[in-house]
Design a protein that fits this description.
Order of helices and strands: EEEEEHEEEHHHHEHEHEEHEHEEHEH
Strand content: 25-35%
Radius of gyration: 29 Å
Distance between the termini: 112 Å
Strand order of the largest sheet: 8-9-10-5-11-12
Length: about 350
């Protein structure tokens, strides 16, 4: 009797079977769990330093040690005052400017990778277009850079013009030098979407638009969001950011001040803050979260219907001093964080002596 060789076991070898009367049922190994998709944007200790001055002996650091993660499918808003470093960060993510320190990836690939160009769209804050072209010719030119076939262009360009609410007659006949600021912003938004990108960078997309134009941009962004696109944009119009974004970050003097979802930063939109006196502790504990007492008053965050709570307070002989929405506006939150960031600098600034 000879020795029979047995093949080593592997997850991918054919599994044994159980044979029944009418069918054979395989015992299959469970496949490996799918890995999570890479982040749309990931930065690690990203910084940028410039030399300036006549002798290049002055150093300017518009960006300092920025760590940031934006997941695919998110609508992300980058906020900050003028000169905070927002456009510098955007240019580094697009590969236009190289970082002096750190690294970054976009859609899982290093920034500057040529394979990324077909998957991203970009609208700069102050775009410059070939003003001798009509809007239609400019979109054809942009589509040609991406290698989009002419047949697809004939369908795609009218769709985009309708989406940004720019009349096709004006796009075909009028040169870009005759466009208003709002019309240029619309044609710029169309060119950013010409290649049907997975990730769209928008630098101040509301700039120069009237209220109807701003509403159009919001509708375009919400439509892209519904399609699962990732949007990364800067804006000074905080009310629009609050209405559109899933998450925001505040950048100030090149440093990241805070990052998070609107609910994490501002609180739930329907949460109330209540303050009053009197009543019974065991009942208040059922209605209020983070219940505290100060100078004879109790206060906390209401969980439940405010009208029912008001009736409960009256029924137990208490009185309600304050009942208001606990969530701050994004504008109030933004101003508070900027003041906090500036406070240490003010404290360390030398004071002028008064004679």
């Amino acid at each position: 009797m000879g020795f029979r060789h047995r093949a080593p076991f592997s997850l991918w070898t054919k599994a044994p079977t159980v044979v029944g009367m009418d069918e054979t049922i395989p015992f299959l190994e469970s496949p490996p769990e799918p890995t999570a998709p890479p982040a749309a944007v990931q930065t690690y200790n990203l910084a940028k330093t410039y030399r300036t001055g006549f002798w290049l002996n002055q150093i300017v650091t518009p960006l300092q040690g920025v760590d940031l993660t934006v997941q695919q499918g998110e609508t992300f808003g980058l906020l900050g005052p003028n000169g905070a470093g927002k456009t510098t960060l955007l240019k580094m993510l697009l590969g236009i400017t190289r970082p002096s320190q750190g690294r970054a990836t976009v859609l899982g690939r290093p920034v500057g990778d040529r394979a990324l160009k077909h998957r991203i769209g970009y609208l700069p804050e102050n775009p410059y277009f070939y003003d001798s072209l009509t809007g239609w010719e400019f979109l054809q030119y942009t589509a040609g850079l991406f290698g989009i076939p002419a047949a697809v262009q004939r369908r795609r360009i009218p769709e985009l013009l309708d989406q940004v609410q720019l009349p096709q007659s004006a796009a075909r006949k009028k040169q870009l030098r005759k466009y208003s600021k709002g019309m240029l912003q619309r044609i710029g938004l169309a060119q950013a979407l010409i290649n049907d990108p997975d990730l769209v960078f928008l630098d101040e997309p509301m700039s120069g638009l009237d209220p109807m134009g701003r509403h159009m941009v919001r509708e375009v962004i919400l439509n892209l969001k519904a399609q699962g696109k990732t949007l990364f944009f800067n804006s000074h119009v905080l009310s629009d950011v609050e209405a559109i974004c899933d998450r925001v970050a505040i950048l100030h003097q090149g440093k990241m001040v805070c990052t998070g979802s609107l609910e994490d930063l501002l609180g739930r939109p329907n949460q109330y803050f209540a303050r009053g006196r009197g009543g019974r502790l065991e009942i208040l504990e059922k209605w209020l979260v983070d219940l505290t007492f100060e100078r004879g008053f109790w206060q906390g965050y209401l969980q439940g219907d405010p009208y029912d709570f008001l009736s409960t307070v009256r029924g137990m002989g208490g009185s309600l001093d304050t009942l208001q929405l606990a969530r701050h506006s994004l504008e109030d939150f933004f101003l508070a964080r900027i003041r906090e960031a500036e406070a240490p600098a003010e404290a360390t600034r030398p004071q002028r002596q008064i004679p």
